[in-house]
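SAMPLE LOG
Freezer: B-3
Tube label: C17
Construct: single chain, 383 aa
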Amino acid sequence: MAAVAICGFALGLSLINLRRFAVAPAAAEEDPGWSLTVCIPARNEAANLEDCVQAVLRAADADAGSQTTVLVYDDGSDDETPVILTRLGAEDPRVRAAETKPLPAGWNGKQHACDSMGRQAASDWLLLIDADVRLAPEALVRTRAAAHRRTGSNPAPALLSAFPRERTDGLGEAMVIPLIHFILMSYLPFGRMRNTLDPAASAACGQYMLVRRDAWNEIGGHASIRASMHDGVLLPRMFRRGGHATDVFDATDIVECRMYDGFAETWSGFVKNAYEGLGNVTLLLLLTVLHLGGHVAPWCVAAVGGVGTIFDMGIPVSKPATGLALAAIGLQLVQRSAIARRFRQDPRIVALHAPSLVLLTVIQWWSLVMHLAGRRSWRGRTA
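STRUCTURE (predicted):
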């Protein structure tokens, strides 16, 4: 019965959130444009940087009424990133290399890069994106329209984050990365997020965050989260503590990202910040119980009960218990099917919901171990 309640709650909130989590609207007919700096931190991004910058420039071309600058921070790259950046700057004056400094003690590399770019920018708005993000031509125009859209009683957001379409290649990536949307839809109270400034009722995706520069300066910029590896969780909380609203929108149709390449990179990428995203052991324990007890256990009960019934093995799993387990599984499959369809995810993950959550739980606990050991690392740097 508990598993049915857990899965039913997750499905119900997901269906509500899927309606509230709208795509960006079309631009208004009288759109005055804006001044925008697109900030791209780049550490060994030779494989991504040119495609990312060219996509931003195409989006800027489609937003001709705005003043758009692309600022790239080369964060100590030892591949061809600096050469590519120099060439891109020579080809288009809108592309600039940010002034760089050695990474100070106590700073995460990405947060230092974003903080440096924000302080060098002169625009009213900053768009912070990762180098593995690709923008559709209408992305900037529609992001601005989303920034002016009212979704609740809160004032217009000073931080607006988009969740891109997450491209995956291979089952290892597909079992883990789409869980971002599962967690978002299952647990974020969109109504509370849009009608209060409660820091706990917030979310963002570090791959694509638009911030109003004056508000960003007011909360201390990325210096306020200098040691973090999870800007998507901590930065919106800092904005809300500073009295500024935040919001999110669905960018599946205008932004995409190849977050990680292969299962090994996916594992490392999630381990580096999975525990930090939760913030405490109590929440980790709660999610472990909800996921293993509410989502995974029904598959075990149904399997054992089914085998016992078919082969008359006398296994002590009653028919009512098996029925409840099957009901919980049905709720899960409906939820994951709706999410996979909406966000264009690999359809195989629907049937792999239970092993995906087992894998996520292992990642979260291993992330805690790495956190306690001081061994969380990314791109050759330890947190």
